[in-house]
UniProtKB/TrEMBL annotation, chain A:
It comes from the Eukaryota. Component of the GINS complex. Residues 65-167 form the GINS subunit domain. This is DNA replication complex GINS protein PSF2. It is found in: Nucleus. Residues 3-61 form the DNA replication complex GINS protein PSF2 N-terminal domain.
From TrEMBL, chain B:
Residues 308-322 have a biased composition (Low complexity). It comes from Eleginops maclovinus (Patagonian blennie). It comes from the Eukaryota. This is WD repeat and HMG-box DNA-binding protein 1. It is found in: Nucleus. Coiled coil: none annotated. It holds the Pfam family Mcl1_mid. The lineage of its organism: Eukaryota, Metazoa, Chordata, Craniata, Vertebrata. GO terms for molecular function: chromatin binding. Residues 308-368, 824-908 are annotated as: Disordered. PROSITE patterns: WD_REPEATS_1 (PS00678), WD_REPEATS_2 (PS50082), WD_REPEATS_REGION (PS50294).
Amino acid sequence: MDASEVEFLAEKETVKIIPNFSLDKIYLIGGDLGPFNPGLPVDVPVWLALNLKQRQKCRIVPPAWMDVDKLEEMRDLERKEDTFTPVPSPYYMELTKLLLNYASDNIPKADEIRTLVKDIWDTRIAKLRLSADSFISQLEAHAKLDNLTLMEINTIRAFLLDSLNCMYKLRSNQQPGSSKGQFTDF
Amino acid sequence: MPCERKPMRYGHSEGHTEVCFDDSGKYIVTCGNDGDVRIWEGLDDDEPKFITVGEKAYSLALKNNKLVTASSNNTVQIHTFPDGDPDGILTRFTTNATHVTFNSSGSRVAAGSSDFMVKVVEVSDSSQQKTLRGHEAPVLSVTFDPKDDFLASASCDGSVVVWNIKEQSQLISLPLLQKTNDISNAKSLCRLAWQPVTAKLLAVPVESKVQLYERGSWDHVSTLSDDLLTQLINVVVWSPCGKFLAAGSVGGSLTVWDVNSKLCVERQKHEKGFTVCDLAWHPSGSQIAYTDTEGCLGLLDGLRTSTSNTTNTATKQAAGTKPGKDYDALFDDDDDDRVMDEGLSDTNSPVKKPVTGDDEDDDDFLMPATGRVRNRVAILDDENSLDTGSLKLGQDKFGDDDDTGSGIVPAAAPLVPLRPAYEGPMPTLPQKAFQPGSTPAHLTHRFMIWNSVGIVRDYNDDQDNAIDVEFHDTAVHHAMHLTNTLGHTVADLSQEAVLLACPGTDELASKLQCLHFSSWDTNKEWMVDLPQGEDVRALCLGQGWAAVATSALMIRIFSIGGVQKEIFSLPGNVVCMVAHGEQLLIVYHRAPGFDGEQALGVQLLQFGRRKRQLIHGEPLPLSHRSYLSWFGFTAEGTPSYVDSEGVVRMLNRSVGNTWTPVCNTRETCKSKSDHYWVVGIHENPQQLRCIPCKGSRYPPTLPRPAVAILPFKLPLCQTSTEKGQMEEQFCRSVLFSNHFSFLSSSGYEIDEDAQSQSQKNQQELLMKMFALSCKLEREFRCVELAELMTQNVVTLAIRYASRSRRMALAQRLSEIALEKANLIQEEMPEEEEEQDYSSVRRPSGSGQSEAAQGRQSSRRYQEEEEEQEEEQREEEEGQEMEMDEASETKKTSVSPPPMSQRTYLLSS
């Protein structure tokens, strides 16, 4: 799974838009959308919101958590706690990126929000690396992934799995006798 | 001693608030629960300077440009005045200080505290402190002897103690007050006051009287009281001359006595009856500032107790010029729309405040004001005539006081004939004309209108004055940006045009500008000058026409292309005006309202082919003490409005044009100061479109507010029960489908799917209610419900009744069914004739017959629909019947089938 796939999944999240056109309900496999009334907020998936936005057919209402005060609070909490704190949305990073790239004119203080979300992301990734390090150095067998988002897991998955494989190979070569003995048992 | 009570204004957040004047009398200084000290340049200062002194400020004193405050960090601190720089801490207590005061020269400060102590500190050297111990409860107030020998303090232990400052000893302790354990429980703050200048008397508020104690002997020499003053007195202050004493009470009364004659010379009442918690007398003696426990600041102006050595003629002159000044204040009304913004701000809504200050009166509504002023002139004249007569008498009486004393006699003379203050109903300030969906005109960035078509915004800062027009649906027209050179203040927007208007100035007439963007020719704009002296107050756009209400009580109708079509007069000042299609609705002032109520009238006119008036200036119902905050038509064309209490009402055309409350937006607000700013109403689907505003009545332009949707709910009884709920749904459904018959009667096409849907819903609800009543054994109610049903549903009800073994009920129902069937039979033949008639839409025939036709055709449609349904039902019913009968024979039970099955049947 790569980042673009995770982003694709994130595009299924709903976001409020204020359309500037009028359209009856549209019936899609994924569910009904609309009706669209000009000036009246309606919930649509992010992919549609971005598409309409690019065609200048709507204004995007940023999600409630995309607010400087709330994000600052979250960042401070994230820095204070040793464990991962709950995130506002399971796709917070992807949504921030998508919405800020395509609809930054509809989001007040877009730059500050970008920095704040990046701060939170950096803090969390640092924590993740730290825990991966202790996971390996203490030869743990399993770890809890509470409050981790798909994107975060995804960033470390390939690296962690490969390195674990390598380590395993290295370790099994170091003690050829014992490991071979184990394998022969089965 | 007539005086003018200025309207209260918001000073601090709720809680104990204190006030004083600076030495020159130029500033009013207040402190309050928000920890700020505010410096007001007069009561009208909209942007007072403030100094933050702590989290809370309990008390303040000001002298020699030193501001002493008692704040929540248990200190008494000095700030410089008026700069507000911190100048050190005078003293500390173990808990907060409750009252601080200066001595007459300003060299010492006394502070009483909740830790039972009183401290006297030298301002120049805070290390020189004297602590007075002896109180057994928190100290309520302290006051210095003007000659600096003594200090008096009152405490929650019930005593008033006079101390000798030098020896730090109690001279006398008087058990005068009620005992309490804390300031917060004390009924009265018991603010003592020592007579200035002569220092002869110490005033102690004891319950509803003021007791005066003589310096030296400490005997109780006299008591000041007033029959109309029944509540506990909180605070007393001496006038700077020492001849008058003012008291503020827990119930909001303000009373002034002449101490020599012991007569009450002035009575005023706090406009809302809140507790007066501090008073301050202007150094000139002409004004008293007061504050209440809600943090508001008020002012009594025009008290004539001057201590200056004016000669008699000077006093007379002053008396002579006074009424003139009053009139000036009355007519030089500041035209800056203050009333409007007060109307929309929370603290000073016009309706919650009876008309008091004459300078507040709008020049449109002089009636109540002039009445009162005339009254006042009479009193003033009285005094003038008395002046000369009483002069000699005064000299005789007070000649031994001092030579200059005669100067103040005229003021004190007319004491005896003073009438008690007028306490009857007060006229309400009539609300100003407004454009529904606009925010107050004084804002630099504001909405000129927000309606279902789009938004018009006005930016009016120093560099730029511009108007932005934006459409919700960009298919209507692209956004427009205009420079507002004319200074337009009101706007309306429709699918065809933008209408703007500006008030007239001395040179320029009031102008009306129309941007007719849907015009097919190249000239998309026209402009009209109103006659000189006539100002646009309200305007609106209908379909193909525009209406303007002016200050000359005139309604002018223009075509959308700019042809003047109609002109007629309005019985009162316009409040607002809205249009939809061919309907024009005007709200105006019928008469002055009283006690916070607005007396509004409403006219609904229909233009188009047959012009007529549908509502003939009937009174508009509003909630108690509220004013109109939004008026508009629903998207389907039913007039509806919102008052300042958040109640939404809608015209009920089926009950003789009455107004039905359909929603209370305040019920969904989280906090008291939150409001919903309504922008539109839709009947199908039922939507109340509004913008939630946190802590205000209207939204800011940035960040761009988002529209929310509220549901409607009729305030029926017992809506928590199943019965009440269904009744509410049914009534609401009926009310919100009224527009179908109205629209079809006025020749519009209607959404027949939606209509049949709503009728189906209603019948379903009726059947549910029928089943419920059946279960509750309310057969009479069942019959009542059956009368509302259509024939087909009645047959269903009969079946239900017979199934549940209610034969008597089934019998009655079948009679009803028969009646209904007969009714349909009678209508049948007529329909045939009308068939070809109705194919010609809108012939020259009258609207009435068309209405009937519309109704019939809709009914016919509904019948067809139901017949189809019925067929379906029959089939299912048939199957079920067999099953039911089978089970019934088996169990021989007499109970009717379960409800859920029934209702399922109906909805299937």
